[in-house]
Amino acid sequence: MTSAVDSPPDAEVKLEAGQLVGRSPGQLMWIRFKRDRTGVISAYVVLFFFLIGLSAPVISKLYGKDPYTVYADERPELFDSAGVPLQPNGGISGEFWFGLEPGNGYDVFTKLLYGIRTSLMISVAVTLATVLTGIVLGVTAGYLGGRADYWISRVIDFLLAFPAQLFFIASMPVVVSLFVSPRDETPVYVRVVALILVQWFLGWMSLGRVLRGTTLALREREFIEAAKVSGAPPGRIIRKEILPNVVTPILVQGTYMLPNFVTAEAGLSFLGVGIVEPTPDWGQMFAKASTELVMQNDITYMFFPGISMIVFIVAFNLLGDSVRDAFDPKTAR
Questions:
Q1: Cα dihedral 144→148→151→155 (10° resolution)
Q2: Where is each ABC transmembrane type-1 domain found (predicted)?
């Protein structure tokens, strides 16, 4: 007879103080995730980006520079008549670690730090809003069924027909104009709120549809029927029985949604309808790097924001794959 000590690593029991102790699904998931080297490395990379984003003011203070100083005016000797840094590689030196931005001459290192901070803060806010909306509407449609399911499903079908990127571009000026007159300068917080609202509006449907299908399957299970027979109200059944069983699709979908929102936010800023100067932003740096002045004279400026975004997106996508495999080992490659 096989003992608990000889059981396979993924067994749901372990020997502790001479007794068999069951492992929870969360513990099993954590064990599987820790064995995935790619997932662990990706998690560290993602955590690093969030840490440097949150620590941007501290790093900037220690570095002795900020992303708002126009060095083209304060240090004109560093630039030629076209506004291009005189030193090679975009002006990279011991004083300016990542060089200087052509034109205004912003410090690239601090601008990148604050740009990462801006993009991640907006994307996290959009992800939280879309996840909460998807949970509320998806679980409601799946559990209640009937007319609630019909109307929520029709709303999802209708919104999925929208071309997302075109809608984002066209609706951003409209949303901004709801807060500020076109004749006035738009505050940064208004643009941030508009970016969150626009992306949230077309961002929750995929998660809502997944949770609707999952909840439809769960509501026919025996433990749900037992809860109904015991007299538990629908709200309690959803909180205590349904939600704990849809954590997996929520986490997996969330890890895929956030990098998509990062690229969407950067794309809007790149097109000039998102965050604009002097507020640092990832997409805004790409827009600056694509101008004729920079492309012809200083391709180095594209290197740092480009590499950082590629590394972040790839790491987060790999993290999403690892989270999915850890929750459902049958999907593992």
A1: -70
A2: 116-320
What is the per-residue DSSP string for 3-28? -STTS-TT-SEEEETTEEEEPPHHHH
pLDDT value at residue 330? 58
Q: pTM for the whole thing? A: 0.83
Identify residue 237 by its one-letter amino acid code.
Answer: I
Q: How far apart are CA 215 and CA 208, in angstroms?
A: 10
Q: Which of 178, 243, 255, 168 is nearest to 211 (CA)?
A: 243
Model confidence band, residue 22 (pLDDT cutoffs 50, 70, 90)? low
Task: Report the alpha-carbon distance of residue 1 to residue 103 in Å, rounded.
Answer: 76
> How far is residue 53 from each of residues 56, 66, 84, 98, 189, measured CA to CA in Å?
5, 14, 28, 17, 18
Amino acid identity, position 218? L
Q: Which residue has the tokens 């769960």?
A: 218
Residue type, 276: V
Give the separation between CA 317 and CA 325, rounded to whole angstroms. Answer: 13
